[in-house]
Design goal:
The protein is an all-alpha fold. The protein has a domain of about 120 residues: Tetracycline Repressor, domain 2. The protein is built from 10 helices and no strands. The longest helix is centred in the last third of the chain and has 24 residues. The protein starts with 10 loop residues before the first helix and ends in an 11-residue tail after the last helix.
């Protein structure tokens, strides 16, 4: 059997290519079912070439997590620049996560149940915490939340987003997708009513509780 033909390219370009292809293989197969042989074959290189760039499968996996995690954070932060009320933002968030998962199913690497190592577990936890806070900050910006509350709600929203994305993928048509989005959005938005609106915190809430001064009838 002939070995893969390796075309020469700059080291950084080759490394980027290997990371991209490794991401595709890991998201398709999961960590345990993926071997360095699978990735080398997908890249059209020999396994020794792959090991020139990454010392082990776990080291490669950690770098894939970092790359995907940063890309997901960029996407979440991009939502902050978009207007609309809470309902608009939640609906946009659910749809955007569906679009992202349809492209790469990247969240599988962060919400799966494969046990790799303590280092990988810590890395996934850190990235999820960052993503959770960012997501909660975008979708819940009109509510007063502590960092702890934001992390809890953000994690929950990521889980909801993943489940919703799967339902949207399985939906028969656009009408069913709209119904799914409307239902999930209503549940999330209605669930946020227990948190104080940002615009009524502190002094603003105190002002709102004070009665308006009576107007002098002689001065309209």
């Amino acid at each position: 059997m002939s070995s893969p033909t390796t075309s020469r390219m700059p080291r950084e370009q080759r490394r980027s290519q290997l990371l991209r292809l490794a991401t595709e293989v890991f998201t398709e197969k999961g960590y345990q079912a993926t071997s360095m042989d699978h990735i080398a074959t997908a890249a059209g290189v020999t396994k020794p070439v792959l090991y020139q760039h990454f010392r082990s499968k776990e080291a490669l996996y950690v770098e894939v997590l970092d790359v995907i995690g940063e890309a997901m954070l960029v996407e979440v932060r991009d939502m902050a620049g978009r207007g609309g009320d809470a309902e608009d933002r939640v609906r946009l968030g659910m749809r955007r996560f569906y679009e992202l998962m349809s492209l790469k199913n990247s969240l599988r690497l962060f919400t799966g149940h494969e046990v790799v190592s303590d280092e990988v577990k810590e890395r996934v936890t850190r990235i999820l915490d960052e993503m959770s806070i960012e997501l909660a900050g975008v979708l819940l910006s009109y509510r007063a939340l502590s960092t702890g509350q934001a992390r809890i709600l953000g994690r929950g929203l990521i889980g909801i987003a993943q489940t919703t994305a799967q339902q949207l993928h399985d939906a028969a048509d656009d009408e069913e997708r709209d119904e799914i989005l409307s239902t999930v959005t209503a549940v999330v938005v209605d669930g946020l009513t227990g948190f104080t609106p940002v615009e009524q915190t502190g002094a603003e809430r105190a002002d709102a509780d004070d009665p308006a001064p009576e107007q002098d009838a002689s001065h309209p």
